[in-house]
Here is the input.
Amino acid sequence: MKKTITFLSLFISVLGIAQEPCSTGRYSSDVYPTTTLTSNIVYGQNLNYAGTNKILKLDFYEPTSDTATVRPLIIWIHGGSFLGGTKTDADMVALSQAFSKKGYACASIDYRTGFFPIDSANSVKAVMRAVQDAKAALRFFYKDRADGTNTYKIDTNNIFIGGSSAGAITALHLTYLDRTCEINGYVPTGNLTALGGLEGNSGNPCYSSNVNGVINLCGALASYGWLEAGNLPLCSMHGTNDGTVKYNRGVVNPGVPLMYLDGSRMLHEQAQAVGVQSNFYTFHGAGHVPYLGGGASAVAYMDTTINFVRDYLIDRLACTNPILQAPNTPAQTATLYPFTPCSGNVSVDFCTGAGLSEGFSNLNLKVYPNPSSNDMTIEWTTETEMSIELCDFSGRRLHSKKEFGKNCVIERNGLINGIYLLKLTNKSGETTTQSIIFN
Here is the structure.
């Protein structure tokens, strides 16, 4: 993800609003003895692989009695091979509690899991659904801050995304799969469109999904080449004997072979090649997610994980605290297979107008609620003539109308549950599209 500076984040910086300084010990040590948990906060909804609506929830952890007006946020994504797992998995709880005690806010999210048939093509779709849901969770916190509610007191300049196993795969794809040409090579255009595009329709449209860093715990990326010069630094930890998500490169195999991915060792090699900071720690001789489970060994691995991630985060926050867990020497040789970077635009966000023509950029188009169980509203900022078409994914036009003004209602009119394509054409003949969901 190429990080951009939003007007909101610039405005906050100008005002000098920031979290408490590192010199207080915050972010580097356990300055809060306890954390407060708020469970099952709804951040969105979307259709799962079977076409059933899934309400998306997160658990929010924060330091008890914290007086800071803003603080960094870590969004944690659980593992489970995209087939299971929950936001209350033991590693997600342990990580959320550990970093909340250091002064961070943490959110452990549920996302849409499950796919069938269990094969490579459907596992890719599952990855994209997880990415869409994680983006909705990011937008949820940006929205809370932008609306002035500030319920969660988040410093939106310092939001981090991380996960374990499938959650790390999700975090890496969210961060580095960001160019349309990359996406088209990974997900067939028709499949991605049917899923709702890269940003998806899981909630909180028209807000940023930017992050300031990515934490990869035993994860992988579909192609190392998506990590390019100028990308965000990453923090990776991985076991050399991981039989589920390979340390180097190989087939993800949670019991059924799914897809080839480039593991943390490959990503570290690529980061070094293109000049991206990579904090990489190897669990020598360890298997998959060695910090998860009972016993002294798992506890020791978790302590190492917390310390190593802690060092990465304080560096991203420009703190100068002593390092607790330095990177160690990687194992194995990572052979970067031939890869030719593609050339293509950054994916368009319909709501922000990024990448749209000048005419659409100035209109600040918004569609809400999306998904909807009834009608939807389209809004734009300047009175103008707009042609609106609603199509299914075979291209068949279902409704069309022409409006002059600043808004239009899309009437459901008995449409069955599903994903549809909304096409808008302005008076100059320029067009833009977005997928919408009726549920």
In short: Residues 1-19, 345-358 have pLDDT under 50 and may be disordered. Residues 78 and 92 are 6 Å apart (CA to CA).
